[in-house]
Design goal:
Elements (H helix, E strand, L loop, with lengths): L10 H25 L4 H23 L9 H25 L5 H8 L2 H12 L7 H18 L13 H24 L7 H23 L9 H28 L2 H5 L5 H13 L5 H23 L1
Length: 306
């Protein structure tokens, strides 16, 4: 693979982007499988810690310098904040999956671009929301309201606390956006991607590990091979390998063309939840997915043109 920039997406890039979107979509179902046997905060902590070890080995082999360099204090502060938000995000996701379905969680957490668009004008005033962007945000919001309606439609959901899991999914999206905005607003924006990811993994592993001890989550001595295999998949394939692949794509291809592929992730997530876990596919959820994807597409398209 050449280190030069490509002006357009080629077959390799499209295949890699489809793979990343599919892996991120399936990830919610894998987490749902494991959370039934491995406590949520412990699972999130083990995932971050394992991925941090793998990333450390990768950067050591590649001789990538992870030291802050210039603006050390500001970089470290940004890294600690990004890591804390990352920990809260995945804490919300894993706890939320105890109450809601993987397919619903996939729709809610990919509201993150919605929150990024709302927060970006405070960091970059030139990126104010315009007419079509506002319309897109309203469409995405209507999609979320539609999905929430499933919990109060009179037809009892499988879990009466589904609304709480859905709420944690939306909160996770806001925290994900907060991480993105933190990176954009601090020296992390010009730091190596591996350094930024390492901050998020190490800090989140420590915080989630502490939360595991504080809440008294026990070690799952009788967890099945399927549950452990799901955790290994999340750690090695998703959190480590797919993120590195994504960073490689960002370095070598136009970001505006790449970002549109992330809209496929909630679609893969919905398909995985329904196809692999047998979760219910309600008309409200399908409508919500279409509204969220369409709304974020409008926001992204208008912002890229601007």
């Amino acid at each position: 693979m050449s280190d030069g920039r490509r002006p357009h997406l080629d077959t390799l890039a499209v295949a890699c982007l489809l793979l990343c979107s599919a892996l991120w979509g399936v990830n919610q179902s894998a987490s749902k499988v494991a959370v039934a046997e491995i406590p949520p905060l412990l699972q999130a902590a083990l995932r971050s810690a394992g991925a941090a070890v793998l990333l450390g080995l990768f950067t050591w082999i590649r001789r990538i310098d992870l030291r802050p360099g210039g603006k050390t204090v500001a970089t470290v502060r940004g890294g600690l904040l990004a890591g804390a938000l990352f920990a809260l995000e995945f804490g919300c996701i894993f706890v939320g999956l105890q109450y809601t379905t993987a397919s619903r969680m996939a729709v809610f957490i990919y509201l993150a671009p919605f929150f990024v668009a709302l927060g970006m004008p405070f960091i970059a005033p030139g990126e104010r929301l315009r007419g079509w962007q506002l319309a897109g945000l309203l469409l995405a919001f209507a999609g979320v309201a539609t999905a929430f309606g499933d919990s109060f439609s009179g037809r009892a959901p499988a879990n009466p606390l589904q609304w709480w899991g859905d709420t944690l999914g939306v909160l996770a999206a806001a925290l994900w956006a907060g991480t993105t905005l933190t990176i954009r607003a601090t020296p992390l924006s010009s730091a190596p991607a591996e350094q930024t990811l390492m901050y998020q993994l190490v800090v989140s592993a420590l915080l989630l590990g502490g939360a595991t001890l504080a809440t008294g989550e026990g070690w799952p001595h009788h967890a099945s091979v399927l549950a452990w295999g799901s955790l290994v998949f999340q750690t090695v394939i998703v959190t480590f390998a797919s993120y590195l692949l994504w960073f490689w794509l960002v370095r070598h291809y136009p970001a505006t063309q790449i970002s549109s592929f992330t809209l496929l992730t909630p679609i893969f997530g919905l398909a995985a939840g329904v196809g692999l876990l047998g979760e219910p596919l309600t008309p409200r959820l399908v409508l919500a997915l279409a509204a969220v994807v369409g709304g974020i597409a409008l926001v992204s398209r208008r912002r890229h043109r601007a």
